[in-house]
Write a structure and sequence with these properties.
The complex is a heterotrimer of chains A (394), B (326) and C (285). Chain A is an alpha/beta fold. Chain A has 2 domains: 190 residues, Rossmann fold (3-Layer(aba) Sandwich), CATH 3.40.50.2300; 145 residues, Response regulator (Rossmann fold, 3-Layer(aba) Sandwich), CATH 3.40.50. Helix content of chain A is 44%, strand content 17%. In chain A, strand 11 and strand 12 form a beta hairpin. Chain B has 326 residues and is mainly alpha-helical. Chain B has one domain. In chain B, the strands form 2 sheets. A two-stranded antiparallel ribbon of chain B has the order 1-4. In chain B, strands 2-3 form a two-stranded antiparallel ribbon. In chain B, helix 2 packs antiparallel against helix 11. Classes of the chains: A alpha/beta (394), B mainly alpha (326), C mainly alpha (285). Chains in contact: A-B, A-C, B-C. At the B-C interface, helix 5, helix 6, helix 13 and helix 15 of B face helix 4, helix 10 and helix 12 of C.
Chain lengths: 394, 326, 285
Amino acid sequence: MLAWRATMLCCLIVLILVGPSVFAASIKIGDIHPLTGRLATHGLESHQGVIAAVAEVNEAGGLLGRQVELVSRDDQSLPDVAISRAEELCAKEKVVGLTGGYEDSLVGAVSEVARKYQVPFVASASLQKELARHGNPYFFRVAGLQGFVEPLCDFLSERLRPQRLAILHAGTPGATEFAADLERCLQPRGFPVRLAEKFRPGTPDFVPLIAKLAALPADVIVSGGFFADHILLVRQIKEQHLRPKAYIGPWGVAYETFLKEMGEDAEYLYGTAAWMPGITLPGTEAASRAFVERCRRLFKREPSSTTMHGYTAARALLAAIEAVLRRGQPPTGANVRQALAGLDLLLPMERLSFDERGDPRSYRHVVLQVQGGRFVVVYPPERATGSAVYPAPP
Amino acid sequence: MERDVPRKGALPGLERGIPITLLLGLVFLPFLARSSGYVLQVFTHALLLASLALAWNILGTGGLISLGHAAFFGVGAYASGLLSLKPALSPWLTIPVGGLFGAGLAVIVGVLCRRLRGAYFALATLAFVEIPRVVTDNWDGLTRGSLGLVGLPGLPVLIIGPWRVEIGSSAAASYYLVLSYTLVVVFLGALLWRSNLGLALQAAREEETAARAVGVHVDRYRFLSLLLSAFLTGTSGAIYVHLTRYTVPGLVYSLHFSAVPVIFAMCGGRFTILGPALAALVLYPVDQFLFHPLLPAGHEFLYGLVLVLVVLFMPGGLWGALRRSP
Amino acid sequence: MWVTALVSGIALGSFYSLIAMGFALIFGVTHAFNLAHGELVVLAGYVAYWLWKGWGLSLVFTFPVAVAVLLCLCLILQRLFALLREPLELNSIVMSFGLAILLQNGMLFAFSGDYRLIRTPALTEGVYVNGLSLTYSQIALVALSLVAIGLLHLLMHHTYLGKALRATIQDREGAALAGINVRGMGLVAFGFGAVCIGLAGPLYGSVHYLYPAAGLQATLIAITVTIFAGVGRIRGLIVGGWLLGLAESAAVILLGSSWRELVSAVILIGLLVFRPRGILGREEG
């Protein structure tokens, strides 16, 4: 009898102590990524970044004691599916905010749904400038095209100074715009583009294109394609004995997995990244290390730049929700949106604050080169850890 | 031989009962599903696909199977999208104009393929989708190429006397618009079915040589059915693009929009009026609510499976079989 | 530049004719369109990839296994096609369309949408002569397709089975009247088709990328080459494949890479509209 009462008392005490956090409504946020389909590799990484951010916040006690619940959906790399998933998350799951996305066609589709339901959407990877120009107050992104174009433009015009530049790009909105912007930046500086070509992602054979490159002969090749495109293109360039002085892949190169796939063939290739393990914004080294540790623990793998993008977007969303809760306001779409507009957060990838269009104010890539099987920052000078080997030795 | 002769005693109750019940359900859906905007969105999409399947079936009435209706869908979508951006015309105008562009493309297809029949016609349409797709993707000046169309205006505003309904901002209003459109397509299909044109097409489908022998202008009528089918498909595409307000070439010209009408029309019943719509309204929600959560990757394989089974065992489609059962 | 394009066009074209061989045989004998042909090739590639990746089998040994798997699949396929009613061509197109969707999504489920490449370093080596690069994989493709066509030609023209097959291709009713087991010929055609597909698949995985959606493009190529060569003509397949490969290379050089996909579509439509019997085929009386 006594034991029974004691147990009940203990349970009651535990309940009183733990109760509020267990029974306090959790905050639901949603993420939509291409987890299957042709963008699966990248989508999964970004998704893991989001998970890491949510885990970090929950481990520190949640948002004012309320745990964060992440509802994830897969858009299969198809805009059509992205739209239904976004509708499901906004209408059925009633999430407070959305994050995720990998490619502009997916992000654009979701942003329209977000606008319709007035749910803030912080995209982790998006480039197309137009997306932020349509007065969609519910759309924010932690990446932007200017972060790619400006550093590359400066690097090319100041360091490499190509005479016969070729820009290739995949037929996606972001890559297309990147190629156009880069050309527009370099042309007035005296570096016209001699060959500009668009290819469909997943092209099986680049040999005729390489023949055109060899006929120039191109000295610097910028290739705005994805992971798989680089692997095939670089391999076929080697097979055809084309020896450009530099091959630059803004996407897809600055990844450990790329190094592993390519092995020696990756040597002297250039890539860009906003963040990599070991390459982080000055002042954020500790946070960066903690992030890497957490990812190793949760996923048994090294995080990549894409992972960091997902993490950054999720952190932004969560910070905004926290700000709203701190003010004692309910976490509605409009309130979170307002908090996002006024955000100023120092993260390993960037000092995050959004302009009136939802674009990040200070997102900039550094240019890296593979030297000795490792990535070396070669530009801008204030963050460089080595100097570029140019032209690439045969 | 499949002939659409409704027989007395062939479950007349069911034949009328099912569509009427379904119609009532659809009309009252926004109230029934008030708590879940997701259900409404799924059915809006299902209705759009139903209108697409019905439009496809108009061509199928004459015996021509098209595996490339996405071409018309995409052209209609892009025409309407571009016209609503610059000059900023109202979607009330651009949507039917999108349909006209679809019909325009059909003129090219019709002229090119006028001698093709059966499997060869199907093949030609399958390959044909690449042409508007690649052109749209590369003609940057006109279509913005790979950048796609962003921030398109939504469905238009409806002003009747003192009432003003912003259809684009209301899920229920958008739903009713698509429902009304689908009913219009059903009505047009039924009209066609019973008209001289429709009878001629069905005769040509069954026995082309005999039909020609009695003086049916088979080629001309098939051409007309192609135009009508493409017009309605283009209109569906235009509505779609104003629902989603965003598109890229790879989206509206995708195999998905070519495959879906074939699947729904075949599974529902190629030789019936309502079959394609019924299949769309059953299969699509089942796929979204049931199969997708179970099999996030590759759940569309159900569509393929159903198509194979239907072709093998039930060429008249499920609705067709139901109507014919003694 | 043009010489490289020429070489690339021929190598790719040889590969195209290999892909087309299976389709041409099956279609020629049974008049059944198999729109899932490309998916079968990709599936054979996945089988080879799985053996290579998971079990460490070298590329050469994956071929027999892929062929064996495809033989089983094609047997099932033949049974399915046999169930179809008239009109056979149309019904087979629609049913195989469904099969293609089924297989594509099945592969998506089983293997995910990631690009898979069977890495064979030996194939990337090559000869470099006078500024022209010739990789071993290109040489292998050309050689293999020539050998395959040659063997097939030998089969068709110098064996009794081949004669029976050709008779069936030319006139099914006549062949039946002459006492040839037409259904049996159909089975044989599917069998040989399976062998061709089983060979093309692993090659696809090492020369190109494997991904579930690759099937449709491969199917269209197979159909284009088959129709070009004319139904039942085997040697025309090589010419057709080469011309297609060269046309694509030329389009890339002249117009740009973004016009590449248009080439096969336009050629196919052109063939269907203007010469459905194939450019090299004889006019049937």
